[in-house]
């Protein structure tokens, strides 16, 4: 149940980033839009959120450990670059399909990472873990 909630929270965060940043978009194939309408976009967001969650669970801890000197040197600001890299990597992974996340440029990824971080933080407060 907790995984499903986190997946929906990530989908909402990705939707917010795509809505607020011009160079971030969620691509839905036209046949999905014609057949399912808004449900097609919701399905694509959930798929992208699953990829984003997997990237953050597997790759992000390794990148954070390897970049620890830069994080310390910049007093944590380098974590913005790490978040941007995870968003960009999610976009690259989903680009191999007919649907997915599109990120055009480094600064779009940085601002998208900031928005995703803030939305996850706010929704994480509203929906706390059962730990």
Automatic annotation (TrEMBL):
The chain crosses the membrane at residues 42-59, 66-86, 106-127. Keywords: Membrane, Transmembrane, Transmembrane helix. It comes from the Bacteria. The keyword Metal-binding does not apply. The keyword Membrane applies. Pfam families: Phage_holin_4_2. This is Phage holin family protein. It comes from Nocardia mangyaensis.
